[in-house]
Design a protein that fits this description.
By secondary structure, this protein is mostly helical. The protein has one domain. Helix content is 73%, strand content 0%.
Length: 320
């Protein structure tokens, strides 16, 4: 059963650990370049995720045996490594994006390893869902990175956090408790790493290069946020009970931050643009949550007196 107090503690531990790490490293340096700050954020993200999941008590085993295990132990570290390399700016931009798109393409087979979805080629509906979700992942990743590079904006990180929390709640209400709980440290860590640079007086005073209108946002935050969101929705879609449309809606909801690029909006005060973006992102997420809650009340709630979800074939191992 879900444990709200434990989730709140894990959220606090992940956010505080990651933000304090980034804040201290920035404060100790005389100056921080964008590449250096991105590297600090990568290590801050890793530290926050490790401590958050350890506090949450989601035990992982090697070799990973479930989609969630592979997400946390293979996909997330792989994405962090790619963002560390790309953020160092040692490679041409085109090569960096080839690495990112390589991650987007390889995530589905990694998460579906040893599952019936890879062994069966007759399930056309599943392959359609995989294709649509991968295309959406690449589109969201590229678009949000472009907006961040063009105008900055910590609101984009907040929008991703909202989507991740919505994904976690939706997956949890679909019966996959551990899959939904995995969203909590991820969202908290992203939040902590995003706000830490803005709170560092030394960083704001000395590094003029990254003073952007809405605050600098490291590319690693976008990368791990979008890939993590995709991974949670993917395991919820194929090893849980959520359908393709809600998963796709949650995944592309952060794209509504593009409203900040509208000619009549982008020249307004930053807090107005950020507030409008977050409100627009929250609307489809609320619709998905309401629909998921109704589905939960209709199908899952009557089972709470006996067992949360009845195991179904190979999927029973994924829910544990």
């Amino acid at each position: 059963m879900p444990e709200p107090l434990l989730y709140a503690k894990a959220m606090g531990v992940a956010a505080i650990t990651s933000s304090v790490f980034v804040f201290v490293i920035i404060a100790l340096r005389k100056s921080v370049s964008t590449a250096g700050l991105n590297a600090v954020c990568v290590f801050g993200l890793r530290l926050g995720l490790v401590t958050g999941y350890a506090w949450l008590g989601i035990s992982r085993s090697w070799p990973p045996t479930s989609g969630l295990d592979r997400l946390l132990m293979i996909v997330v570290p792989m994405t962090l490594c790619v963002e560390l390399i790309a953020g160092a700016r040692l490679l041409p931009t085109a090569v960096s994006w080839l690495l990112r798109f390589g991650v987007a393409i390889t995530v589905p087979p990694i998460l579906l390893q040893n599952s019936v979805y890879l062994s069966s080629t007759d399930d056309w509906t599943s392959w359609q869902a995989i294709t649509v979700l991968v295309i959406a992942l690449a589109m969201v990743w590229g678009t949000l990175s472009y907006i961040t590079h063009r105008s900055g904006g910590i609101s984009i990180a907040f929008a991703i956090c909202l989507a991740i929390q919505c994904a976690g709640a939706t997956v949890m209400m679909a019966g996959y408790i551990n899959g939904g709980a995995a969203a909590i440290p991820l969202a908290a860590t992203l939040f902590g790493v995003s706000v830490a640079p803005c709170l560092s007086p030394r960083y704001m005073r000395r590094d003029h290069e990254v003073r952007l209108p809405n605050g600098f946002l490291a590319s690693a935050i976008i990368g791990i946020g979008v890939v993590g969101l995709f991974g949670l929705l993917f395991v919820g879609r194929f090893f849980g009970e959520i359908s393709t449309m809600p998963a796709l809606t949650i995944l592309i909801a952060p794209l509504l931050c593009c409203v900040s690029e509208a000619p009549k909006i982008r020249d307004r005060k930053p807090w107005i643009v950020a507030s409008l973006s977050l409100i627009l992102v929250a609307i489809p997420l609320m619709v998905v949550l309401i629909a998921a809650n109704r589905e939960f009340d209709r199908e899952m709630l009557p089972l709470l007196g006996h067992e949360f979800v009845k195991p179904e074939g190979n999927q029973s191992n994924e829910r544990s």
